[in-house]
Write a structure and sequence with these properties.
This protein has 146 residues and is mainly beta. It contains one helix and nine strands. The chain has an eight-stranded antiparallel β-barrel with strand order 1-2-3-4-6-7-8-9. The chain starts with a helix and ends with a strand.
C-alpha cells in the first residue's frame, strides 16, 4: 500500500495534464461489481474514469468499495485496446492492467478482461468481466458512463 500511496497522486496528475494538454474527452461513471473470490464473495459499488490515449487505446481507473466484506476496496488501472466497433452500437475492448485489493493486507496483481460498451444518445452502458490473476478473483461489473 505504501507504493500505491506514492503512485496514485502521480497517476492522477498525469491524467489531468494529459487531458488539459490534449483536450481529451474524459468519461466517467459508475456501477456495481461482484467479486467471486471464495474467501470474501463481495458486492461493491464502483466509480470509473477513462481518458482516450490514442485512436486505439484508452486509459481507465476504477475504484470499488465492497459492502460488508473482508475486502474493503479495490483500485484498478487498465489500458483498453479498442478492438472493434459494431456500427457504433457495440464497442469491444480487451484490457490489461494492475489491481490493488485491500483485505487484511493489500494484494497487488495483474488483471485481464474485456469491456463491452453500448452507447446510446445520453449514456454508455458497460459490462466488464475481469480476471485478477492472484487470489482466484473473478470480478463482474455492470454500469453506466456519462
Amino acid at each position: 500500500m505504501q507504493h500505491f500511496n506514492k503512485a496514485f497522486p502521480i497517476f492522477v496528475l498525469i491524467l489531468f495534464f494529459y487531458s488539459v494538454s490534449s483536450n481529451a474527452q474524459i468519461y466517467f461513471g459508475g456501477g456495481l461489481s461482484f467479486n467471486s473470490n471464495p474467501s470474501y464473495k463481495a458486492l461493491g459499488i464502483q466509480a470509473k474514469l477513462g481518458i482516450p490515449a490514442s485512436d486505439k487505446f484508452d486509459i481507465n481507473g476504477n475504484v470499488t468499495y465492497y459492502l460488508a466484506s473482508k475486502a474493503s476496496f479495490a483500485f484498478d488501472f487498465d489500458v483498453h485496446y479498442k478492438l472493434f466497433n459494431v456500427e457504433d452500437k457495440l464497442l469491444v475492448n480487451p484490457f490489461a492492467g494492475i489491481n490493488f485489493t485491500k483485505t487484511e493486507i493489500t494484494n497487488n496483481s495483474l488483471s485481464l478482461g474485456i469491456s463491452f460498451k453500448v452507447p446510446t444518445e445520453k449514456y454508455t452502458y458497460y459490462i466488464e468481466p475481469r480476471w485478477i490473476l492472484d487470489n482466484s478473483q473473478f470480478v463482474f461489473t455492470i454500469g453506466v458512463l456519462l
